[in-house]
């Protein structure tokens, strides 16, 4: 990307595209019912960020909202704030890369906001399993599952993209094509 510059049509939209993928992963984590699941038969426990469901022997699922617990509200609120900041960063990145003249300080600000977003997301992702396993009675063998994994993937993407957005202005001259090429050829 640095070699061809951000004006190179295929490379210009890579960072906003990765942010968009992070937003999709965040939506999956928020809506997914697989934050915690039973690992072995009979499957008796399933939980999301919002509720915990149990199935008694041969019966139907009964669900309890986690919003009745202070830690449930805290985990949901912090993860949701991180997700909203990620969506804001995605919108700002679209705006920043759509303008012909890049504002590199603006891009560095997006990187800083991504780090703040990652902090909120990680706080929610740490509060949830710690308090869930101590406050809610679990039977059988349980595991934190695919939707929880999507939440961590979103947080890791926020951190990595934050580094990219913060470091991109360091290569401003190379990106804009203001540096003369160096040739390592010497004539005989």
Summarize the SSE layout with pairings:
Layout: H1 14-31, E1 36-38, E2 45-47, E3 51-55, E4 61-65, H2 70-98, H3 104-135, E5 142-144, H4 146-167, H5 172-176
Helix pairs in contact: 1-2, 1-4, 2-3, 3-4
Q: From the alpha carbons, calculate the radius of gyration and give it in angstroms.
A: 22 Å
Find the CATH topology.
Butyryl-CoA Dehydrogenase, subunit A, domain 3
Q: Please state how the strands of the largest beta sheet are arranged side by side.
A: 4-3-2-1-5
Beta strands, count? 5
Cα end-to-end separation: 34 Å
Strand count, sense and barrel status of the largest sheet are:
5 strands, antiparallel
Domain module count: 1
Low-confidence segments:
4-8
Distinctive features:
single chain; 188 residues; alpha+beta; Butyryl-CoA Dehydrogenase, subunit A, domain 3; five-stranded antiparallel sheet; p53 apoptosis effector related to PMP-22; apoptosis
